[in-house]
Structure formats: structure tokens, C-alpha cells
């Protein structure tokens, strides 16, 4: 049975709809919450087979209120990459992945965006990434992809929404398993919120069913790409 370390940064943003898919594939996962009293980032990979770095709501990596646990998370993420173990970065976690792999990040304001991703790489995720699918992003800043990164899907402006690294790691600018309730709770958890929360929630509710539908294929692709099956 594979075992994944999951770094969580807020009370409300978790794996969401992805949890059932991981459990259904007999993949274990354990949350580590450095924002809680006594919570820490693991200093070693231990016996974990992979790492998932989740989003951080309004936290930034180069602007705004910076993620307090950023440096130990970068060290842990790099240790997984150096060991050729898969890392999945989601939202802010995708920025952490890009930085740890030798790329970077650039300033961008906190945003809550529902947009359509277009797959740009043939046979992305073994053909399991849909040609077009909804992406819900709730984050600050943008990734600067490292050399060797491959963009798998982008938005209408040509900005990367899904990218791969090292043939086994993935960055998702939006949360592939986002629930509307998760976004609602994120808005309630922090004083700082995006300016268009009402519009964002309405748009998210409108694509919630499609997110759940396409996630089945995406999770097959993630599992095979990361070799966690």
C-alpha cells in the first residue's frame, strides 16, 4: 500500500473530492498541519511514497502574507524530487513545487477564478486529461516554471494550469477536487478575501457536477503518471 504525505495550510482546504479516489485505489494519505498548535513539517521523507502540497488560501510565496512554513516545505519538497519520488502541488502548492524544482514565482493578487483549461500536450496524463475541463483557482502569486517543466493544460490567456516535472510530478494551479463548501469556508476563515467571492461561488456551483465527473479520469491519469498505482 502506497503512503502519501499531505501538507495542509488552512483549516478548510483539504484533498476534497480527491480523497475518495485515493482511498478507492488503496492509497493511504496522512495530513500534516504546520499551522496548528504543535504542528510541524516533516524534516525527512521517512517511508512516504509521495508528497501532496495543498493550497494556502490568501497566503503567498513572494507577496502578501507569506506562508510561515515555506522554507521547511521547500526543503521537504526538494528532498522528494531529489529522490525521484512524486510530488503533486495544488494551488499554492504548485508554486512551492515550481520553486523547489529550480523555478520561481511572481507576484499576483489573491484571486478566485473559475475558468476552462485546454489540454495542450498530446496524450497528457496518458490520455486521461480531458481536452477541456473546469479549473477553480483560489490563490495568490503565479509560478515561474523551471527548465524541463512541461505544460499540460492552459487557460485562454496561455497561462499554465497543469504542468509536469521529472516525468512523475504534477502542478495544478486550481484544485482538481474543489468543493463549493470548501471555497465558502475559505472565505469565512480569513479576513482577506478576493474581491469577487459572490461571483466566484456562483460560477463554482455551476461547474461542481462537471468537476466531479472529470475528476474520475484525471485521478486515473494522476495515479499512473505519478506511479502511485
Provide a concise account of the structure shown.
With 229 residues, this protein is an alpha/beta fold. The protein has helices at 18-24, 70-82, 92-100, 180-189, 197-225; strands spanning 3-7, 28-32, 50-53, 87-90, 104-106, 111-119, 132-139, 142-144, 150-154, 160-165, 169-172. α2 crosses α3.
Written overview of the protein:
By secondary structure, this protein is an alpha/beta fold. It has one domain: Class I glutamine amidotransferase (GATase) domain (Rossmann fold, 3-Layer(aba) Sandwich). It has five helices and eleven strands. The strands form two sheets. It has a nine-stranded mixed beta sheet. It has a two-stranded antiparallel sheet with strand order 5-8. A hairpin with a 5-residue loop joins strand 9 and strand 10. Helix 2 packs across helix 3.
Strands, helices and their partners?
Elements lengths: L2 E5 L10 H7 L3 E5 L17 E4 L16 H13 L4 E4 L1 H9 L3 E3 L4 E9 L12 E8 L2 E3 L5 E5 L5 E6 L3 E4 L7 H10 L7 H29 L4
Parallel strand pairs: 1-2, 1-3, 3-4, 4-11
Antiparallel strand pairs: 5-8, 6-7, 6-9, 9-10, 10-11
Helix pairs in contact: 2-3, 4-5
Which structural traits does this protein have?
9-stranded mixed β-sheet; 11 strands; 30% helix; two-stranded antiparallel ribbon; Rossmann fold; alpha/beta; 5 helices; 229 residues
Cα-to-Cα separation, first versus last residue: 9 Å
Shape: globular
Taken as a percent bin, the fraction of beta residues is 15-25%
The CATH architecture: 3-Layer(aba) Sandwich
Which CATH top level class fits?
Alpha Beta
Compute the gyration radius: what is it? 16 Å
Q: How would a crystallographer describe the biggest sheet?
A: 9 strands, mixed
Number of domains: 1
Given the helix and strand composition, which structural class is it?
Answer: alpha/beta
The count of strands amounts to: 11
Overall pLDDT score:
96
Order of helices and strands: EHEEHEHEEEEEEEHH
CATH superfamily: Class I glutamine amidotransferase (GATase) domain
What oligomeric state best describes the polypeptide chains here? single chain
Strand order of the largest sheet: 2-1-3-4-11-10-9-6-7
Amino acid at each position: 500500500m502506497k503512503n502519501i504525505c499531505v501538507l495542509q495550510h488552512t483549516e478548510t482546504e483539504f484533498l476534497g473530492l480527491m480523497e475518495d479516489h485515493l482511498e478507492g485505489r488503496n492509497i493511504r494519505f496522512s495530513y500534516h498541519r504546520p499551522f496548528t498548535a504543535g504542528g510541524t513539517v516533516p524534516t525527512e521523507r521517512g517511508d512516504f511514497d509521495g508528497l501532496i502540497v495543498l493550497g494556502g488560501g490568501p497566503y503567498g510565496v513572494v507577496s502578501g502574507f507569506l506562508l510561515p512554513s515555506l522554507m521547511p516545505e521547500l526543503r521537504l519538497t526538494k528532498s522528494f524530487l531529489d529522490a525521484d519520488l512524486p510530488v503533486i502541488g495544488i494551488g499554492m502548492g504548485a508554486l512551492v513545487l515550481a520553486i523547489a524544482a529550480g523555478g520561481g514565482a511572481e507576484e499576483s493578487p489573491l484571486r478566485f477564478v473559475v475558468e476552462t483549461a485546454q489540454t495542450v500536450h498530446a496524450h497528457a496524463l496518458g490520455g486521461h486529461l480531458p481536452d477541456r475541463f473546469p479549473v477553480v483557482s483560489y490563490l495568490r502569486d503565479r509560478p515561474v516554471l523551471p527548465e524541463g517543466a512541461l505544460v499540460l493544460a492552459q487557460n485562454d490567456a496561455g497561462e499554465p494550469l497543469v504542468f509536469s516535472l521529472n516525468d512523475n510530478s504534477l502542478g495544478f494551479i486550481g484544485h482538481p477536487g474543489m468543493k463549493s463548501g470548501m471555497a465558502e469556508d475559505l472565505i469565512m476563515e480569513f479576513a482577506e478575501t478576493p474581491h469577487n467571492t459572490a461571483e466566484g461561488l456562483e460560477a463554482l456551483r455551476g461547474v461542481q457536477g462537471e468537476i466531479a465527473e472529470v475528476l474520475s479520469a484525471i485521478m486515473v491519469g494522476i495515479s499512473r503518471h505519478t506511479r502511485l498505482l
